[in-house]
Fold each of these.
Amino acid sequence: MSEGIQKRKKSSKQEETSSESEDRSVDARSELKEDIDELLDEIDEVLEENAEEFVRNYIQKGGE
Amino acid sequence: MAITKVFGTETEFGISMRGVAEFNPVIGSSLLVNGYAAVHLPPVNWDFEDEHPEKDARGYLPFAMAPEVETTLANVVLTNGARFYVDHAHPEYSTPECVTLQDLVTHDTAGTLILQRAMAAAEALMPEEREFLVHKNNSDGKGNSYGCHENYLMAREVPFRRIAEVLIPFFVTRQVFAGSGKVGSEHGAPEVAYQISQRADFFEEEIGLETTLKRPIINTRDESHADPERFRRLHVIVGDANMCEMPTYLKVGTTALILDLIEDDFIDKDLAIESPVAAMQIVSHDITCKTLLRRPDGSTVTPVQVQWEYLELARKWAEGQVPDPEREKLMSEWERILTQLEIDPLGLGEDLDWVAKYKMLEGYKDRHGIGWSDPKMRLIDLQYHDLRPERGLYFKLLSQGRVARLTSPDAVEEAVRHPPENTRAYFRGRCIERFAGSIAAANWDSMVFDLGEDPLRRVPMMDPLRGTKTHVGDLIDSCDSAAELLDEIAS
């Protein structure tokens, strides 16, 4: 492969976690929750409004 | 002897439209293809002369009706050597022929970008309230499926029965990294909250020619699109369309590698598992990846253990080959993924679609206190595959750096316009870029030139490894017209 696999972007918060803190596991867990919260907020923002109707109307013809 | 593997993917996208009462997906797909072509392409039609999807690798014509080829729908060849067209009721993007995994992944991702541009081009011609919804997925959750096929060039001399024997257990178990994940089940499969694969519920046979009903794990379509005496083109229909790049990289890379072993007749052990069709579903329906599959001798193995056996064979085979950094990289990634799948599959959220999607769903479910049967869960599943960059949930993961990228945006942009340099796709793509006005039609294995006089001139391309940049790059650059190019080729 000519390009190799690019490094995943780490949030600066994650990098800080690996420093001296004594109860790191608790910190890490709340970091993790905070981390996914950011994603879930964004999902709430972009999710189609009427889930039931959207899912019901999503019909495709078979293909291939 | 193992031959150089030339491979590609063929993705059918789900399509619907907001803002119309009755949406016709055939017309919608045509609008996408024609819209893209009008904005981004010189016009070149596809040539159907050599299409024979009814040909069977087992050497006989089956009783079933041959698949239909629709020759009147929108169908274009791109300057990157790819084909963008309407298949049944879906837009389909077939990558150009690739020989490196990096090219394959880059061109697969370029397909996504091309669809996004097609949506923008077509929407510019429509009333404002209309909006295309295009999904890179494989099912509508209601029993209708469409495919993401793979193709691999192989040596014709290998008995098809042998290919099927070795590949069936491989395909049944490679889902553990290749699956794109799905909420619920369909097509009569047992109920399940979440499963690994989009497609597993749809497989009903071990081997067969069909792709639209009674789908087989091993598809026998035998269109070599090359010299049929030397080559076969294995048509694989068992995979999911992937959003993440790692599953595409792994599924094509590992499959091509196992085909090398088959061609060298290297596999000396029986890897069979019992009832593979049932096992497809069983593997997909168990997100712990620990379900036990039975072997004909009565022993049991997990899907991941089956994959380890293939990897060990591949490593042993590779010891006798000229070292290849791309192959080494592939095998170490394969090993890393299998190792983590045994420790905890949920640790692979940066790599695998089915895990990334599952973690997103779990998080959402917990936050809102809803169950797996809530319509929002199915919606998130669908919207994960939504190609609108601002709405698609995969793109949210990508923009937040939560999934691994194997390509650079610049390389993908390049692949939208330019062909891989080391297959015949180079000749096809460059000719379209330079001489579109003189090309009557193009196909995988030929180009037909119209020089304004009878007869039309057909240039056969029966070897996928000829017509590369090394062979024809300088020649195409130095010719000012198609007529000059054909004279040079003939001399």
Amino acid sequence: MRNILTLSAAAALLTLAACTPADAPVEDPIQEQEEEEIEEVERRDLPEGIDDAFSQQACGLLDQATTELLAGASESEAGQALIVPDGKTDLYEIVLPETGEGFVTVEIPDWMTTVRFFADENANYSIEDADELTGLRQCGACPDEPISDNRYAFHEWGSYTLTFDAESPRRIWFAVFSEG
Amino acid sequence: MISLLLACASEPTLDRDLWGVPEHFPDPAVPQDNPLTPARVELGRYLFYDFGLSDTGTRSCGICHETAKGFTDGFVRAVGTHNDIHPRNTLSVINAAWRGELGWVPGSNLTLEQQLLIPLLGEHPIEMGMSEALLLERINDNPLYPPLFEQAFGDAEPTLEHAAMAIAGFERSIIGGRSPYDAWLQGTPLPEDAERGRALFFGEETQCSRCHGGLFLDSPTNQWGQVTAKHGAFNTGLYNVDGEGAYPETAPGLIAKTGRARDSGVFRTPSLRNVALTGPWGHDGSVGSLQDMLDSYARGGRLVSSGANPGDGATNPHKSKHIQGFDLSEAQAQDLLAFLDALTDESLLEDARYQSPFCPFDINDTGTPAEADCIPDSRPPELLP
């Protein structure tokens, strides 16, 4: 069982603090409120948490064994680590190099595919050439767990580079599902 | 007598003018029993682009050999209809009519007609996921095909053999010989940077052409630039997983066939024609840019510092003697890249003869295919997106 299931009260408070959209602006409270409202409207069509089968699936994987995947140390080495959101392997432990950023190739095998990523809350990642549909949402998937949730739309099939930034933990719990 | 038989077997049956064979290209090797005819090539074009030739309706030959990508797919390693990852990167089919070896691993001795059955029917990995029965069922159920088979083979009843012959014929008709480099071969100067890159490419300093020589830049050459064999196969020092020359288990090279240690990491040299379009590069698609590829060669082998296969390819004991490394300034690297760009035949990308006859998805979706110069998607209704 992962240690995130035994959070201390202090950590739980921190977790609650983290359970807001990662990209929410902070400078202007009015703008913040407006943008949150817009975001909320958009989110109504995109289920999360208990209403979402993929979130439930991801939460169900929390105590499952992971497949270790060693990320590349540079974009040039992203091709050394492949993920296919194919329903065969859903769950990984991404191991980032000591040097900092980590690079993984996601192979998208079909057109107009939406892929769900669930990760440790402190993992920061991005994918070029894909549309981020919801932004990184903390605790959206499993309200009691510090798991972030993100949705990307891939318009074309192909190989995409998933970049973890250097602030991420060295070992990242990472689940991937294709919504089709 | 044997040489007479060989001469007959490879006797060209291709009409150079009809198929647009460039003047500076030799006659291609077209099998005596499968001459290129317009009817066969047209049938082959339909089959090549038909999504119905994959079990899930999500793959066609043409989607993995896409025109805009130099007839490759853009993947690191292709993914089949059941999400199997192919162990190697997808090769181009351009100028396949002149290729004696197919695939990355040398010694396959397959004709195009035989080779294309591997992605169609193969199970390890599953690429298009077809069986012969399903393939014939799909073709039989499609009213487009009886007249095309009749015109191509004089028999409206489709067979796997005829389908393979038609697809191979279409592939042989895909000819790329109108790049700036081809123009240079015929007397037109290259842009200055590409010309400097050409001199570097064929020069002793980089020795690129010792492996990428000849008209198709896939033949080994000697120090005088003479082609010594039609195709070469080398270990280029991309990996050294165990410090003793091993490549990753997923694609170990010719050693998988021969069992000889010295064949570890040995793969056929691909043609560099249209190379700027065909990334990612390398036998396993693990080289993300041509600059990275140049860096690997300049270093005398690639250093993989992370991931599951770390190691220094420069110290791979089975590495080709031509991969010795070289010094290259940034400007020289740019010149070499400009030369590689000059190997692109842009006319190929727009040539209507090589395009899919079927409508793109969006035209299908609008329900107005009759207005477009294309044929509605021929997949069975249950396989349409």
